[in-house]
Amino acid sequence: NVAAGVRATQSTTFRIYADANNAIDGNLDPKFHHSSCSSTRRQKDPWWRVDLKEHYRIFVVRVTNRDRKPERLDGAEIRIGDSLDNNGNNNTL
User: Fold this and answer.
1) How many angstroms separate the CA atoms of 88 and 49, rounded?
2) Boundaries of each Fucolectin tachylectin-4 pentraxin-1 domain copy (predicted)?
């Protein structure tokens, strides 16, 4: 896990136990109330990002969804790159 030990951020935080860093802490528990998931508030174009602090060749990104409401990831995009231009949307999809 190249994201271990770095900090993640997200556009908003739904509840205190839905922190962005929960998404990279290695805890794969899909139960939202176990502080193992990140979540934003309902908003237009929410985002989550992590700065890995170094360059890596990324071949796999693993996403574990919460145990309920899987449709909330519908339309999610994973972009990889160094640019924050256009809120990171100019990076490779």
Assistant:
1) 9
2) 1-92
Whether this prediction's pTM lies above 0.85 is answered by no
Report, as an integer, the average pLDDT of 22-35. 90
Please give the domain boundaries of the chain with CATH numbers for all domains. 1-92 (2.60.120.260)
Confidence class for position 17, pLDDT limits 50, 70, 90: confident
User: In this predicted structure, what is the pLDDT of residue 77?
Assistant: 93
22 to each of 12, 31, 48, 62, 65, how far by Cα in Å? 14, 12, 11, 14, 12
**16 CA to centre of own chain:** 16
| DSSP string across the chain | -TTTTS-EEES--SSGGG-GGGGGSS-----GGGT----PPS-SS--EEE--SS------------SS-GGGGTT----BSS--GGGGTTSB-
